[in-house]
Amino acid sequence: MQDNNIESVDSDQQIAKQVNVDVVKTANIEQLKSLYKDAGWWKWYEDSSDPHLIEKIIQGSFCFVVASINGRIIGMGRAISDGVSDAYIQDVTVAKEFRGRGIAALIMDKLIQFLRDKKIGWIGLVSEPKAVSFYQRYGLSHMADYVPFIVTTH
């Protein structure tokens, strides 16, 4: 059984070596739509009558990152920011078949480095409970005296 674990780690490392992680201004819309659906985030977008919605999301992001293998987008993440003082990371996801192989970490590395290079002093995000330990690896910590709020407008 231990040999299977070693093979799995080797396989994950091989896949991670094949992944390109890039900051982009445009990307394949259908592939991104598939990622949003795979993550369970598509319902609102599906109801939108705007055929350029994903393009607007990319363009409106301060930093939009895609992870790809051989031209296939398998992950993404983005940050919104004023470009000066603070930024919020959101929409970090990886296609289900590639999860658990270090690809989300590559996306986070690229986002954090981009924001640091731009001298952004404060980086926040809202995490699903199951991902808290993942984000803590990047120095993100619970904001004990703050409560996130949301209003749904659609």
Provide an overview of this structure.
This protein is of the alpha+beta class. The chain has one domain (about 1-135): Gcn5-related N-acetyltransferase (GNAT) (Aminopeptidase, 3-Layer(aba) Sandwich), CATH 3.40.630.30. The chain has 6 helices and 5 strands, in the order αβαααβββαβα. It has helices at about 1-20, 30-40, 45, 55-60, 105-115, 130-135; strands at about 20-25, 65-70, 70-80, 85-95, 120-125. It has a 5-stranded mixed β-sheet with strand order 1-2-3-4-5, sandwiched between helices. α5 links the parallel β4 (about 85-95) and β5. The longest helix is centred in the first third of the chain and has 17 residues, at about 1-20. It is globular. Mean pLDDT is about 85; it is low at about 1-5.
Secondary-structure class: alpha+beta
What string gives the helices and strands in order? HEHHHEEEHEH
Uncertain spans? 1-6
Mean of residue pLDDT? Answer: 87
CATH second-level architecture: 3-Layer(aba) Sandwich
Number of helices: 6
Number of domains: 1
Secondary structure elements and their pairing?
Elements: H1 2-18, E1 20-23, H2 29-39, H3 43-47, H4 53-60, E2 63-69, E3 72-81, E4 86-94, H5 103-117, E5 122-124, H6 132-136
Parallel strand pairs: 4-5
Antiparallel strand pairs: 1-2, 2-3, 3-4
